[in-house]
Known about the structure:
The protein is about 35% helix and about 20% strand. The chain has 10 helices and 13 strands. It has helices spanning about 20-25, 55-65, 80-85, 110-115, 115-130, 160-170, 195-205, 220-225, 250-265, 270-275; strands spanning about 10, 30-35, 70-75, 90-95, 100-105, 105-110, 140, 145-150, 175-180, 185-190, 210-215, 230-235, 245-250. The radius of gyration is 19 Å and the shape is globular.
Amino acid sequence: xxxxxxxxxxxxxxxxxxxxxPRVAEAxxxxxxxxxxxxxxxxxxxxAEACLEPTICPILKRLRDRLDFDLAVISGRAxxxxxxxxxxxxxxxxxxxxLEIEFESMRFRExxxxxxxxxxxxxxxxxxxxxxxxEGLEIEDKSLxxxxxxxxxxxxxxxxxxxxxxxxxxxxxxxxCGEGKMVLEVRPQVTWNKGHAIKWIAREVxxxxxxxxxxxxxxxxxxxxxxxxxxxxxxxxEPTETQAQFLLPDVPAVGQFLxxxxxxxxxxxxxxxxxxxx
Length: 278
């Protein structure tokens, strides 16, 4: 089945938990993949001010400490940035839409993206020169990718900002540009996205046979939804066409779902967890 054919309107999850409860309860393990902005943290005007929703932090710690859960955070932010904002160890972190992945002593960088760092700096300088006087605009250098945030830019300039960015990126044969929620993402032209990152983590890091659950809120998360058609996929935000099966309305609802997940699957004992050193 093609990706387009899977696009549909998702089912509100909190009112329909009975659809997934048997799968959750019976799964030997659950691999929980989570986006950050718009999923674990509310969208804010200034991306530098984003932080983990306080009510979600305790449940993440509990799930992280369970023997039958594995946690991965897959963000468009740079890996070091999202890891600092989550602040938990023994979690798999994937930054730059999965171009960089780390877990304990394991480290992955997508080779082609890594080789284009210097060329990306040239694109960055072009954008800074062209957009330097645009009030409210922020260009975020994430080493492997760039994000041009225009949420605080006057609305009448939005199309002009898009034109400038797409033009600058178009002059390079090595990068592509996509749009998320009030952000333009400049990425290397490589066959790699959040979906590839999820599959790589499942293959290289996680034990076989676990049930994957992915929660995200933006266009870049659609690749992740498409990557695990046999898992549980959840979009956060307003009802919209998506490849996700289910819908949560906002970040607090994500916290509610994670609490439900913790209770819906029988827990390993604390004693066993301590003996395992987790």
